[in-house]
């Protein structure tokens, strides 16, 4: 398969790193271009992927084209490549948050096969969480191949587009919030005398282990919280202090703001 990327920022680089690490594609099966040469020339050199000089050159050299630019330029970039996509019967994979299949089809102006996806940064190490929705023109082997790219670098879930904003907050943006939680936990360790490196490793290991526990246990998180909280012990004292500072409200407000911005 030849896979092209238009836009080679943080998310495209994460997907490419994940695919290469899993040997899902060889470097010479990936072709990239973005508006900022600094984003892709050095990256192409470091990873061995092929650097193209224009967006059109990416389309010409790919079976599947990943639209990986920021939402504010996505429609213009799609207009710029739609004739090349059409002439060569390519498949479009979009990772652009907030851009619907209907809007992309309208901009394309023909029956362009499209897979709308919403990945997260953790695809870089093969543990991503990606939502997918295909339009009616993407079926059979092409659909399986496009989905297979994201299966190779984590979990995928087919989702109605109406739920994409919520998913974007809960899975696309939330790594930032979870990294923030890990940093806050580590910083508290530093406050009490641990080195930042040690504290970060401890906080990240416990976060990963606790996530595994939730996934593997039959219990809901609240029941697990009770198992950690010894009667009259230190955990319940900490939990109550966190709630007094508004922990759960802060998380829900953060997700509300994320969804609101995605839908703006
Ligand atoms: N960063 C993340 O965790 C996630 C990002 N996304 C989506 O991925 C897309 C990219 O986001 P990031 O990588 O974070 O942004 P970024 O700013 O790091 O990368 C954007 C890329 O688009 C390129 N670009 C801009 N205008 C262009 C044009 N006219 N032609 C070709 N390339 C052009 C830039 O040079 C840059 O390489 C966005 O649409 C975002 O909604 C989706 C899920 C998660
Ligand atoms: O911050 C953003 O807009 C994108 C969408 C999901 C994660 N990053």
Automatic annotation (TrEMBL):
Pfam families: F420_oxidored, P5CR_dimer
Domain Pyrroline-5-carboxylate reductase catalytic N-terminal, first and last residues per copy: 3-98
Localization of this protein: Cytoplasm
The keyword Cytoplasm is assigned to this record: yes
Keyword set includes Cytoplasm: yes
Domain Pyrroline-5-carboxylate reductase dimerisation: 161-263
Residues the record lists as binding NADPH: 55
Catalytic reactions of this protein: L-proline + NADP(+) = (S)-1-pyrroline-5-carboxylate + NADPH + 2 H(+); L-proline + NAD(+) = (S)-1-pyrroline-5-carboxylate + NADH + 2 H(+)
Sorted UniProt keywords: Amino-acid biosynthesis, Cytoplasm, NADP, Oxidoreductase, Proline biosynthesis
Highest taxon of source: Bacteria
GO molecular function, one term: pyrroline-5-carboxylate reductase activity
Residues bound to NADP(+): 6-11, 34, 68-71
GO biological process: one example: L-proline biosynthetic process
Pathway membership: Amino-acid biosynthesis; L-proline biosynthesis; L-proline from L-glutamate 5-semialdehyde: step 1/1
Matches recorded under HAMAP family: P5C_reductase (MF_01925)
UniProt record similarity statement: Belongs to the pyrroline-5-carboxylate reductase family.
Name under which the protein is recorded: Pyrroline-5-carboxylate reductase
